[in-house]
C-alpha cells in the first residue's frame, strides 16, 4: 500500500506537485494501520484515502483578511442592521431577479459581515440588485438586506470616484458647502454680464432669459465644461469597476468576458430601457412605473437640450420658442413626467414604510434635487409667460444653479447608479452570469 502511494506521489510530482506526493505517503502510512485496527474496513476506501489526500493538498487555502473599517462603513452608510443576519438564505429565495448560480444577497450579507471589501466592490451582483426590497420585507430577522445592498452600492460609487467628494455628497453636514460651488459660478456669470442692477428685456418688453444669461458667453461654456468633466469621471469610474470585476472573475477560475463591453452593450441597453427587471419585483412592483417616468423625463430633457443646441447654434433661431413648438412640447411633457414620477417615488416610500426603509439622506438628496430642478424649470416658464420679471429671473437663476449642482455631483451621487448598473449588467451578460430578463 505504501509503495502504491509513493508511486502516486511520484506521478503528482511529475505533474509539478512534489509536495503532494510526500503528503500522500504520510497520509497513507497513518491511514493503513487505522483501517486494520477498525477490523478490516473495505480495502477500496483505504486505497482511496491517498488519492483524496493528493487532491486536498493540491487546493490552495484562501486566507480571509477582514477589513473592520469597511464593516463599520457599511453600518454607517445605512446598513445598521447588518449583524442581525444569521444566513438563513430567505433573501435569496424570495428574490425574483437573482441568478440561480450563486444568488444574491445572502453571500453579500456574509461578505459584508466578514469585511471582504474587494469581493463586494468588484462584484456585479451589487448592481444586478435593483433594491426592490422583496428580501427586506421577507427577512425573519429584519436585517434589511436590500438596505445593506444599497449601502454597499453607495460605497462602490465612492470607491470608484473621488472618495472625499463622494463622502461629502452622502453627508447632510456638507450640503451647504457643496451648494456654494454652483451658486458662486452662476452668480459670477450674472455679475460678469452686469445684470445685478439691470433687468434685461426683449425688443417688445418681454422677458428673454438669453439676454440675462448669454448663451455663448455663459450658458454654453459653463455647462459644457462641467458636463464633460462629469462624463469623464463617470467613464473612468466605470472602467475601473469593469477591470475589478474581470480580475475577480478570472481569479475565481472564470474566463475573460467574450466580446468585451461593447460587444454585449446593445442587448443590455434594450433591457435597461424597458426596465424589465423592476417588473419582476413583488413588494414594490409599481416602483417600476415611477422609476421609468423619471428615467424618460431625463432622457426627454437631454434631447430637449440637444434640440435647443441645433435650433440656436446651427439653425440660428432665437429663443424663447413658442409653446406650440415641438421642442417646447417635448420639454413640458418631460418635466410633467418627471414631476409625476418623482412624486410616485415619494408616495411609495411612505406607503411601503412598514416593509422597506424610507431611505437615507443619500436618497432624499437626489429626490429633493430632482424636485427643485423640475419645479424651477416649469416655474421659470410660467413666470416668463406671466411677464413677472421680479420673480422670473431669480427662479431661472435657481434653476440654472440646480442643473449645475446635478452636473457637478452626478459622478458621486446616486445618479451615478445608472452607469454602474449598466456596466454590471453588461458584464453579467458577457460572462454568462446573467443573460438578462426576457
Summary of the model, kept short:
With 438 residues, the protein is mostly helical.
Structure description:
This protein is 67% helix and 0% strand. The chain is an all-alpha fold. α12 packs across α20 (389-409). The longest helix is centred in the middle third of the chain and has 37 residues, at 215-251. The radius of gyration is 29 Å and the shape is elongated.
What characteristics describe this protein?
438 residues; mainly alpha; 21 helices; 67% helix; elongated; disordered N terminus
> What radius of gyration results from the CA coordinates?
29 Å
Portion of residues in beta strands equals under 5%
Spans of 5+ residues with little confidence (pLDDT < 50)? 1-46
Number of DSSP strand runs: 0
Question: Per the principal axes of the C-alpha atoms, what is the gross shape?
Answer: elongated
Rounded mean pLDDT is: 82
Q: What structural category characterises the helix and strand content?
A: mainly alpha
List the quaternary state of the chains.
Answer: single chain
Q: Main beta sheet, described?
A: none
Q: Treating each run of at least 4 consecutive H or I residues as one helix, how many helices?
A: 21
Distance from first to last alpha carbon: 57 Å
| H and E order | HHHHHHHHHHHHHHHHHHHHH
How helix-rich are the residues, as a percent range? 55-70%
Q: Topology, pairings included?
A:
Blueprint: H1 2-14, H2 18-37, H3 43-58, H4 68-76, H5 90-94, H6 106-114, H7 117-121, H8 125-128, H9 134-138, H10 145-159, H11 163-169, H12 175-192, H13 209-212, H14 215-251, H15 260-263, H16 265-274, H17 287-314, H18 326-351, H19 361-385, H20 389-409, H21 417-430
Helix pairs in contact: 1-2, 2-3, 6-10, 12-20, 14-20, 14-21, 16-21, 17-18, 18-19, 19-20
Amino acid at each position: 500500500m505504501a509503495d502504491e502511494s509513493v508511486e502516486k506521489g511520484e506521478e503528482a510530482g511529475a505533474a509539478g506537485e512534489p509536495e503532494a506526493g510526500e503528503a500522500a505517503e504520510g497520509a497513507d502510512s497513518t491511514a493503513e494501520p487505522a483501517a486494520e485496527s477498525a477490523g478490516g474496513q473495505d480495502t477500496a476506501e483505504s486505497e482511496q484515502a491517498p488519492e483524496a489526500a493528493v487532491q486536498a493538498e493540491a487546493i490552495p487555502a484562501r486566507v480571509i483578511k477582514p477589513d473592520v473599517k469597511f464593516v463599520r462603513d457599511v453600518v454607517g452608510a445605512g446598513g445598521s442592521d447588518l449583524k442581525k443576519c444569521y444566513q438563513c438564505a430567505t433573501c435569496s429565495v424570495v428574490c425574483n431577479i437573482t441568478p440561480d448560480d450563486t444568488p444574491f444577497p445572502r453571500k453579500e450579507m456574509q461578505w459584508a459581515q466578514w469585511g471582504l471589501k474587494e469581493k463586494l466592490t468588484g462584484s456585479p451582483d451589487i448592481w444586478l440588485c435593483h433594491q426592490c426590497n422583496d428580501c427586506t420585507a421577507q427577512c425573519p430577522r429584519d436585517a434589511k438586506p436590500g438596505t445593506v445592498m444599497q449601502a454597499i452600492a453607495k460605497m462602490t460609487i465612492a470607491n470608484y470616484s473621488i472618495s472625499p467628494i463622494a463622502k461629502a455628497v452622502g453627508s447632510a453636514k456638507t450640503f451647504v458647502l457643496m451648494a456654494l460651488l454652483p451658486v458662486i459660478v452662476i452668480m459670477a456669470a450674472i455679475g460678469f454680464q452686469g445684470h445685478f442692477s439691470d433687468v434685461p428685456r426683449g425688443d417688445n418688453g418681454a422677458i428673454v432669459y438669453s439676454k440675462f444669461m448669454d448663451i455663448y458667453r455663459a450658458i454654453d461654456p459653463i455647462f459644457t465644461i462641467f458636463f464633460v468633466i462629469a462624463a469623464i469621471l463617470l467613464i473612468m469610474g466605470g472602467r475601473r469597476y469593469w477591470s475589478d470585476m474581470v480580475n475577480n472573475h478570472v481569479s475565481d477560475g472564470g474566463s475573460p468576458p467574450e466580446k468585451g463591453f461593447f460587444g454585449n452593450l446593445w442587448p443590455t441597453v434594450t433591457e435597461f430601457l424597458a426596465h424589465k427587471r423592476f417588473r419582476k419585483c413583488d413588494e414594490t412592483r409599481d416602483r417600476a412605473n415611477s422609476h421609468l417616468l423619471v428615467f424618460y423625463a431625463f432622457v426627454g430633457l437631454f434631447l430637449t437640450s440637444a434640440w435647443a443646441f441645433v435650433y440656436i447654434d446651427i439653425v440660428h433661431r432665437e429663443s424663447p420658442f413658442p409653446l406650440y413648438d415641438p421642442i417646447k412640447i417635448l420639454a413640458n411633457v418631460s418635466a410633467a413626467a418627471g414631476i409625476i414620477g418623482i412624486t410616485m417615488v415619494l408616495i411609495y416610500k411612505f406607503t411601503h414604510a412598514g416593509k422597506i426603509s424610507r431611505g437615507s439622506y443619500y436618497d432624499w438628496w437626489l429626490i429633493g434635487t430632482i424636485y427643485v430642478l423640475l419645479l424651477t424649470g416649469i416655474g421659470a416658464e410660467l413666470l416668463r409667460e406671466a411677464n413677472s420679471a421680479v420673480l422670473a429671473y431669480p427662479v431661472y437663476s435657481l434653476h440654472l444653479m440646480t442643473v449645475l449642482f446635478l452636473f457637478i455631483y452626478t459622478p458621486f451621487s446616486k445618479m451615478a447608479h445608472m452607469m454602474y448598473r449598466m456596466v454590471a449588467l453588461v458584464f453579467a451578460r458577457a460572462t454568462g452570469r446573467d443573460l438578462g430578463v426576457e
